[in-house]
Amino acid sequence: MIQRLFILVAMLLVIAAPLLAQTPQQLTTLKAQANAIATAIKKQDFKTVIKMTNPKVVAAAGGEAKMLEQLSKGMGVMKAKGMNVSINNVVIGEPSVFIKVKKQLQCTVPDKIEIKMMGGTMSTNSTLIAISDDDGKTWNFIDAMGKNIATIKQVLPDISDKLVIAKMEQPQFVPDKL
């Protein structure tokens, strides 16, 4: 009986081990770094956003300089069209359980972005995928808004199928009060 119980516990540990990979320090570090990228997004500090974006995603976008150009150009086009857009707030939610894939830690982090635009404020929920290659000391991020795991696997083939990306919701618009 004890031998069977031991075997059962051992099997459960082997199955659950990839989901028991987080420590309080790793979680604290992840939250701090997720908040750092949120602050960079809010300030439109695209250089910092790019440095904190997964390197394979940056490479797929043509490299740091090309990605910076695209982000800056996109904001410039909106301003040129009279669309005075600013990011009011980015709120980071609680990360999911870490999943260990090979030597990586992976998880999802919900976020909510509020964008001030002509006539009101739009808010939308999204999901960041966080990846650490150094056991949770540093994290890089991928904005998964409107994407699914299969799409992300085209750039990051080792991304876990166990990650849950929240379904994209319709953005909410609140008109300015007159």
Which key terms come to mind for this protein?
single chain, 178 residues, alpha+beta, Nuclear Transport Factor 2, Chain: A, six-stranded antiparallel β-sheet, globular
Structure description:
The chain is α+β, with helices and mostly antiparallel strands. The chain has one domain (22-175): NTF2-like, domain 1 (Nuclear Transport Factor 2, Chain: A, Roll). It contains 6 helices and 6 strands, in the order αααααβββββαβ. The chain has helices at 2-16, 24-42, 46-51, 55-60, 64-80, 149-153, and strands at 86-92, 99-101, 104-117, 120-132, 140-143, 172-175. Strands 1, 2, 3, 4, 5 and 6 form a 6-stranded antiparallel β-sheet that branches. A hairpin with a 7-residue loop joins β4 (120-132) and β5. The longest helix is centred in the N-terminal third of the chain and has 19 residues, at 24-42. It starts with a helix and ends with a strand. Residues 4-20 have low confidence and may be disordered. Keywords: Signal. It comes from Parasediminibacterium paludis. Residues 1-21 form the signal peptide. This is DUF4252 domain-containing protein.
Largest sheet: 6 strands, antiparallel
Note the beta-strand portion. Answer: 25-35%
CATH topology: Nuclear Transport Factor 2, Chain: A
Number of helices: 6
CATH first level = Alpha Beta
Please provide a brief summary of the model.
This protein has 178 residues and is an alpha+beta fold. It has helices spanning 2-16, 24-42, 46-51, 55-60, 64-80, 149-153, and strands spanning 86-92, 99-101, 104-117, 120-132, 140-143, 172-175. Helix content is 38%, strand content 25%.
